[in-house]
Specification:
- The complex is a heterotrimer of chains A (about 100), B (about 675) and C (about 170).
- Chain A is mainly α and about 100 residues long.
- Chain A contains three helices and no strands.
- In chain A, α1 packs antiparallel against α2 and α2 packs antiparallel against α3.
- The radius of gyration of chain B is 30 Å and the shape is globular.
- The longest helix of chain B is centred in the C-terminal third of the chain and has 49 residues.
- A two-stranded antiparallel ribbon of chain B has the order 1-2.
- Chain B has about 675 residues and is mainly alpha-helical.
- In chain C, α1 runs antiparallel to α2 and α2 packs antiparallel against α3.
- Chain C has two domains: about 80 residues, Up-down Bundle (Four Helix Bundle (Hemerythrin (Met), subunit A)), CATH 1.20.120.1200; about 60 residues.
- Chain C starts with a helix and ends with a helix.
- Chain C contains six helices and no strands.
- Classes of the chains: A mainly alpha (about 100), B mainly alpha (about 675), C mainly alpha (about 170).
- Chains in contact: A-B, A-C, B-C.
- Chains A and C meet through α1, α2 and α3 of A and α1, α2, α3, α4 and α5 of C.
Chain lengths: ~100, ~675, ~170
């Protein structure tokens, strides 16, 4: 089962990457990032099953950080929305050359 | 008994101190004229006194080898050791005496001549600096230090020629002197490189001791070295082809012309050839070239002097011509004769220039009162000045007789010696050329007598061509200016008596002066090595001139010829009316060609100056602007700008693109790990 | 039996993930993701990580996703909705890169020849028996990993302050 979990983790991760490249909505972009984090969590848990309990401890931390990051990221999106009335990231190109 | 110098460094450093004090005065308090008046001539006089003391000591010491006084190690580079060192031997002592002695007199004269000039302090500062560099030049113990002096006098010459730099022409004259000199300096440098490459040292003592053994007689190396040295000498001493700066240098104040362009700086080339006598003796081709160029220059300059109206221009070309004589002397190996003429020429030429300075000063004052714009230097505006300026008149006649080679004045003995040596040394492989040199020298001597008499007659005799108003303000110059004239006049009379050859001394009438070949014997330790080389390879000299007749015969003959020419010229001008310059037409025909200096300046301009300027402009436009600026520098910048723009497109601001890039990067990295 | 369950939940997870990426409205994407997270929690249970499964549901699916939902509703993104996928070129390039990337990740994790057991399950079972599910994770955390724990608490404090400040209408 560990092997299959790892394969599943890789596939979920690549789906997350695909989503980040494809989607234009900022919030959905964030959700794809959360998906990637979950894929990583799955990999950790799978390895912990093989190696030891420490993997699960690390998953705990990953989740904490994910939560913090999601909160702050969504706060940023809200404040951008207040400026531009949209969350389409095609318009957020002020850093272009 | 050994020679122990007294404060030798002070001789050189006193003028430098004078430069510092006068320079400071020029900067801080230029209107305080009493400081330069005291310090300028003062340091020179002190230096002269020291030189005399050392000379007297050297007289009693019977010196065989030079005394070298090293002061500090300047360039220790690998095997080469160059020190700042002074060399005291008979030749350098003599030169130092001439420089400080005549220099002191000219400084004193300048007090009167430059009194009204606002740049008074600056003038004395430059003059002191010049004497400092000249002393470095003559007292140096190695080639590089001499070159320092060489360059330094060139610099001071530029500063002093362009002293009244607000006048564009005068400033240009200074530039011309410096630039033409540079060409000669290049020759000097190449010669130094060759000497070092072949002998591994640059000290005079070491080089001249090693030369006879290291170089084959007449070989290419020593010929090349000497020819390059001579190139330097032609620049500094105004010989063909680099003499063109000297007539233009008359733009400077007249005492400057007296000091720099008559007595001292222009003799540096002659001193160089005399100093390196051994090298020139080892290269007979170069020696003949030196003598030949000297003779040609003597004749060419004399022909130009014949047709000039500016009194200083006549004297300038006369200087070029007399320098040619000195080079005939040292070129043929008669080093003592060349240096002898250098010494006597310093006396009478300085006297002539100072005298002309007195005349110009008087004319200037006269025109000042009437606000006339006539040229105070044009001889056509003068005439009959002997009634107004007696002392100047008499002293200048003494100098004229000296330069024309009239017994018993100084020039007779020195010039005669050189001409006789040209006759006697017509032996060996280049004998034919030397005979030609003898003929040319005689011709130039006759021309010398002619144009000098012409100068005197036009200036001091005949009718005065000034207006009545100006005549009222014509008078003799003050004593501070006439005393140097008198001293130099005395020297022009007795100065030749230090080296009267037996050929003259044994004669019944002409021998009736104190005579000895003192200078010859005095310089013998210095010229011994060169004399030995010449004796080995050329054998005995002739005792009869090419046209027959011995030394005594030609001595008397040239004396009588000179007197005859003077009298004939004076008679010829008696019947000629000369119009003032504004009323005279420009000369035409042969006289026009001579007046325009054989158009040499124009030829140089067309053949050398314009092509170089055009080539430079082309190089500037195509290489400097086009290639280096445009293609390499700006082009490189443009290239990187464009490359940067290409790369900048990666920053689109689109988050999706950035995420894509990150994914690709991770993919690549993982690829390395996995594969 | 467990294998069958595993494949079932794996399929659900994949389906939810794809549904999120290709979803038409934000709410649809969000709900797909939630289902995916639930499936993952089930897989965690199958992997004997009970505590993690529990906090996956409580924290991830229950808090974080609810936060997303609140923001979507706050910004009123549901109605007059326009397609917000990128052009086809992006999708193609993204798929290729993602596919290759997934493969590379798989190889990197040595999923194909992964050690299925390095003595880990014994350790886990011992720990579970000794400390029960929560303790099995808590004991190592509060013993060996105390410092990261404290640091994450500071991190959460910073995140709270930051989020409040950023989202205020007027500072």
């Amino acid at each position: 089962m560990v092997t299959e979990s790892l394969i599943l983790s890789a596939i979920l991760f690549s789906i997350g990457v695909l989503g980040v490249v494809i989607r234009r909505n900022a919030i959905i972009l964030f959700m794809c990032i959360e998906l990637m984090l979950n894929a990583v969590n799955l990999a950790f848990v799978a390895f912990s099953r093989a190696v030891g309990i420490e993997g699960q401890v690390f998953v705990f931390f990953v989740m904490t950080v994910a939560a913090a990051e999601a909160a702050v990221g969504l706060a940023i999106i809200i404040s951008i929305f207040r400026h531009t009335e949209t969350v389409d990231i095609k318009n957020f190109n002020l850093l272009r050359w | 008994m050994t020679f122990e110098p007294i404060l030798p460094w002070a001789i050189v450093l006193l003028p430098l101190l004078g430069f510092a004090v006068n320079g400071a005065t020029a900067f801080l308090a230029p209107e305080r004229k009493e400081i330069p008046t005291l310090v300028g001539p003062g340091v020179l006089a002190l230096a002269f006194v020291l030189a005399v003391l050392n000379f007297v000591r050297m007289l009693g010491a019977d010196l065989h080898d030079p005394v070298i006084l090293p002061y500090w190690s300047w360039m220790p580079v690998g095997a080469l050791q160059i020190d700042v060192a002074l060399q005291f031997d008979q030749l350098s002592m003599l030169m130092a005496l001439i420089v400080t002695g005549v220099g002191s007199l000219i400084h004193v004269f300048s007090i009167g001549y430059m009194r009204e000039d606002p740049g008074y302090a600056r003038y004395f500062a430059y003059l002191n600096l010049f004497v400092f560099f000249m002393l470095v030049l003559v007292l140096a113990a190695n080639f590089p230090l001499m070159f320092v002096g060489w360059e330094g006098v060139g610099l001071c010459s530029y500063l002093l020629i362009g002293f009244w730099f607000k006048d564009r022409e005068k400033a240009d004259a200074g530039k011309k002197a410096f630039i033409v000199n540079r060409i000669g300096d290049f020759g000097f440098l190449v010669a130094m490189f060759l000497i070092f490459a072949n002998l591994g040292t640059l000290d005079f003592v070491s080089v001249f001791r090693a030369a006879p053994a290291a170089f084959t007689y007449g070989g290419t190396v020593v010929t090349a070295i000497t020819l390059f040295l001579f190139l330097g000498a032609t620049g500094k001493s105004a010989q063909i082809p680099l003499y063109v700066w000297l007539p233009d240098a008359m733009a400077g104040p007249t005492p400057v012309s007296a000091l720099i362009h008559a007595a001292t700086m222009v003799t540096a080339g002659v001193y160089l050839v005399a100093r390196a006598g051994v090298l020139f003796a080892l290269a007979p081709l170069s020696s003949t070239v030196v003598a030949g160029v000297g003779a040609a220059t003597a004749l060419l300059a004399a022909t130009i002097a014949v047709a000039q109206y500016d009194i200083k221009k006549v004297l300038a070309y006369s200087t070029v011509s007399q320098l040619g004589y000195m080079f005939i002397g040292v070129g043929l190996g008669a080093y003592a004769a060349g240096i002898f003429h250098l010494m006597t020429h310093a006396f009478f030429k300085a006297l002539l220039f100072l005298g002309s300075g007195a005349v110009i000063h008087a004319m200037h004052e006269a025109f000042h009162h009437t606000h006339s714009d006539w040229d105070p230097q044009d001889m056509r505006n003068m005439g009959g000045l002997r009634h107004y300026m007696k002392i100047t008149w008499i002293t200048m006649w003494i100098a004229t007789l000296a330069i024309a080679g009239v017994w018993p004045f100084a020039g007779f003995f020195s010039k005669d010696e050189i001409i006789w040596q040209a006759a006697a040394r017509a032996v060996g492989p280049y004998a034919g050329w030397v005979q030609a040199i003898w003929v040319v020298a005689m011709a130039a001597a006759m021309l010398t007598a002619f144009y000098m008499t012409r100068l005197m007659v036009m200036t001091f005799h005949g009718e005065n061509r000034l207006g009545a108003e100006e005549r009222k303000h014509l008078h003799e110059v003050p004593r501070v200016m006439t005393v140097p004239l008198l001293v130099l006049a005395v020297l022009s009379v007795v100065g030749g008596w230090v080296n009267v050859p037996h050929a003259v001394g044994d004669l019944p009438l002409l021998g009736w002066i104190p005579h000895s070949e003192w200078l010859h014997e005095w310089l013998h330790p210095v010229t011994a090595a060169a004399d030995r080389v010449i004796e080995e390879h050329l054998g005995a000299f002739r005792d009869a001139a090419p046209l027959g007749g011995g030394a005594s015969f030609w001595a008397v003959a040239s004396f009588l010829l000179a007197v005859a020419i003077i009298l004939l010229t004076a008679r010829a001008y008696r019947g000629v009316t000369i119009r003032p310059a504004v009323e005279s037409a420009p000369p035409t025909g042969l006289r026009g060609v001579l007046y325009n200096k054989w158009y040499v300046d124009e030829i140089y301009d067309a053949a050398v100056v314009r092509p170089i300027i055009a080539a430079s402009r082309g190089l500037w436009r195509w290489v400097d602007q086009g290639l280096i600026d445009g293609l390499l520098v700006n082009g490189a910048a443009r290239l990187f700008g464009r490359l940067g723009l290409v790369g900048a497109r990666l920053q689109s601001g689109q988050i999706n693109a950035y995420a894509f890039a990150i994914a690709v990067g991770v993919l690549i990295l993982l690829g390395f790990v996995v594969l | 039996m467990t294998t069958l369950l595993f494949y079932l939940f794996a399929a659900l997870a994949l389906g939810g993930a794809l549904g999120m990426v290709l979803g038409r409205t934000p709410i649809a994407s969000l709900l797909s993701l939630v289902s995916s997270l639930f499936s993952l929690a089930a897989i965690y249970v199958l992997l004997e990580a009970h505590f993690i499964a529990a906090i996956q549901i409580i924290v991830y699916a229950g808090a974080i996703m609810v936060l997303f939902l609140f923001v979507i509703m706050l910004l009123n993104l549901g109605h007059d909705y326009q397609r917000d996928l990128r052009e086809f070129g992006w999708i193609a390039a993204g798929s290729i890169v993602a596919g290759l990337g997934g493969y590379a990740v798989m190889r990197a994790l040595r999923a194909d020849d992964a050690v299925t057991d390095m003595g880990g399950s014994i350790l886990i079972e011992t720990a579970l028996r000794e400390f029960n599910a929560v303790g099995a994770v808590a004991v190592p955390m509060f013993r060996s990993y105390m410092v990261p724990f404290e640091l994450t608490s500071i991190l959460l404090l910073v995140a709270i302050v930051g989020a409040v400040l950023l989202a205020k209408r007027r500072v």
